[in-house]
Amino acid sequence: MTDRHLDQLIDRDRVDPSPGMRESATVVAPATIESAGATLAAASAAGATVRFWGGGTHQGYGHVTKADVVMSTERLTKVVDWQADDLTIVVEAGLPVAELEVLLEDRNQSAVLPELPGSATVGGVVAAGVSGYRRLRYGPTRDRILESVLVTGDGRVTTAGGRVVKNVTGYDIPRLVTGSLGSLGLIAQVCLKLWPMPKRAATIVVEDAAAATRVAYRPLAVLELPDRSAVFVAGSEDEIAAQTRDLGGTEQEGLAWPELPSGEWTGTMRVPPASTLEAVGRVRAAGLTFVAAHGVGEIHLAAGSSSAASFGELRSWAEAQGGSFVVTGRPADDGLFDPWGSPPPSLTLQRRVKAAFDPAGIANPGILPGGI
Amino acid sequence: MSLVDDLVAALGADRVKAHPLELRVYDKDAGVARGPVAAVALPESTAEVVACVKAARTWGVPIVARGAGTGLAGGAVPTEPALIVALTRMNTIHEVDLENRTAWVGPGVINLDLSAHTTPMGFHYAPDPSSQSVCTIGGNVGTNAGGPHCLAEGTTVAHILAVEMVTVDGEIVELGGPAPDPIGLDLRAVVVGSEGTMGLVTRVLVKLTPNAPDVRTLLLAYPTIEGAAETVSQTIAAGIIPAALEIMDRPMVQAVENFVHAGYPTESAAVLLAEVTGHPAAVTAEAGQIERIALQAGTTEVRSAVDAAERDLLWLGRKSAFGAVAQSAPDYYLHDTVVPRTRLVETMTRLYEIADRFEISMLNVFHAGDGNLHPLVAFDGRDEGARERVMEAAEEMVRVSLEVGGSLSGEHGIGLEKRDLMADVFSPIDLDAQARLRDAFDPDGALNPGKILPHGSRCYDFGMQPPLSQEPAL
Q1: What is the pTM of this model?
Q2: Same domain, A113 and A61
Q3: Residue B468 pLDDT more than 50?
Q4: Which of residues 24-43 of A touch B (CB under 8 A)?
Q5: Three-state secondary structure string covering chain B
């Protein structure tokens, strides 16, 4: 295949850049998964690098990479197969999370993806490997990807996993692609495990989030913000009343999820769950805004340019606890601060796995820790 | 010098087996296949595992890691003369961290021993395969094992935060970590369930689950198996995910009752065990809701265990199922497919039809909540043609599960047993992708060769071009 072949494919699928993309970007939006495969095969042959784009909400993740072509999933938005009684749904990657959840609400179900997704797509959330606040109760997003269709960097359309809730047939590629940030290719379609949602839910305002975490029984989340803490619970009327009593807080009907902190710089610190309390103390001392998920060990942060200086120190501490501090958003002109920190000890294997799916190294090259 | 000499130099003579009679103990798992063993090593530390790997690589002998050998799919059965690295002696619980609800354990720790160790502290290890009193955590990691309580809690992979692994080159690498979402590709998830084809796991960081403050176990009896399956579907559709939902059919109930005398209703066509755990304020209500659903689905008897002794008695029948079968026939073949939960009744009807047609004795006990079927065929391998008939029926049964949109294995693994059926589930392109992923960990195919992927999965094996997606001409 030649560059001319790639050019033809680009011309066929070309769309205007979305907000957030460079205005001069070459953007393609394949209408089918097979078309995406053909374009990636041609890109691999031509050595053209490709970045993938869903709703644009997680584009700040990872190393800044250069891309000859941006591949958007805006035309891959189908609900392929919803088996409501089996609690599974197959969707294409470009389906916005908000649309998916509205659809599922009809049957009182949820994919338990981030609660305030903005314009994020299912594919973007899976690629970034982010989870919602409710991971304390339902586990991370990674544990809900039952089947994946990955278009590899060299254009192979590969399916792995299956559309049943329990499965050990073959290697667990669905969990591998979760959080791969497009480094293996385009996550084009997934089958998600759904959860039935209890009919009632409430937000219980508490004084001490760490103490509440020890008392609450299987809450959805225990969140601490600079000025308030709350336990989020769901279940029967009786259970919510009992949990409110146990916690000694005040109950408000419904789930008042806080927005993730926003600022010039954003990041997420992840530490073993019991270290959350100390993490919050350090983040407060540094004067950052935050949402801390007790019981999980995930602290989302934001800072202006003056307080971002504390990031380095916070990262050293988080890494010493066996965790990480990932920068997820930064000023456009600041490419110097490493978004990942110390790379994982398995770099050699990571490189080889990337090459197994993207032999030409054209899929978001360099975005992962260690510049993979 | 020889492989055995190198192993003896590293481990000492008492932890290296080379006598044909000793090797025979390690040439099969709990399934039916046997394979050739070159030598057996019983390391007690990560450093000794490294020495085993290096010795095997020096002598060009493939390596098969092994736990307690309770697997049913042949995952630990070598396909060519191999060094068996039995990890059962690495059975130390290194460190329990109650604050973080985790524990670092050796791969040889027995599943139930871990829960027994932590239950008094208020925690347990959630995955509970039926073999949990003998199987090891390392073996559970190898197969991504399940169990009745994986319905609400997820299978092994959801409970493994990190592994320390010895690679095929003899390097020690840690994958995953104690904090959520370690950075980089999630290689931990790929290693769990990889049946020893990606490395030898030498330490495991497991998640511990708090013991439930309240538990209610129901035994529900039905005149038809459809009624039991209907209760399962309706319970899940009503938004309840119980801790466990297990169905046993009449032949199984009768076998179990003869064996343990748990007071199971032997005249019923099916028995459903439903267990609800949670906040005391919720458990009674949920159990009541399941009972109402069951009554609508035609249950004829409801028993509710109110204390631990009654609960243990109800579970005793379920957990003794395989022992009970062994009493009635010398051999059995146990299936492990998963079907969508809404297709349970239809699938069961077709399985009974196959069993009748092949005139085989089939008993059922299964994880109904997950759609994970375990038809168990009891037979006497000494009868002429019995084994062949069972295997022929087995293949039809697997195909029925695939036809309704199911998968080959829910928790036992692919191993040898289902390796050649992988091509019925995945396209050549899919299998090639899996083969390349495996090659990234083990380029020479030295780790448990011949497992999981059928021969010829690598397109390059035959000099073919990588299959690209079919694209209509522009």
Answers
A1: 0.95
A2: no
A3: no
A4: 33-35, 37-38, 41
A5: CCHHHHHHHHHCHHHEECCHHHHHCCCECCCCCECCEEEEECCCCHHHHHHHHHHHHHCCCCEEEECCCCCCCCCCCCCCCEEEEECCCCCCEEEEECCCCEEEECCCCEHHHHHHHHHHHCEECCCCCCCCCCCEHHHHHHHCCCCCCHHHHCCHHHHEEEEEEECCCCCEEEEECCCCCCCCCCHHHHHCCCCCCCCEEEEEEEECEECCCEEEEEEEEECCHHHHHHHHHHHHHCCCCCCEEEEEEHHHHHHHHHHHCCCCCCCCCEEEEEEEEECHHHHHHHHHHHHHHHHHCCCCEEEEECCHHHHHHHHHHHHCHHHHHHHHCCEEEECCEECCHHHHHHHHHHHHHHHHHCCCEEEEEEEHHHCEECEEEEECCCCCCHHHHHHHHHHHHHHHHHHCCCECCCCCCCCCCCHHHHHHHCCHHHHHHHHHHHHHHCCCCCECCCCCCCCCCCHHHHCCCCCCCCCCCC
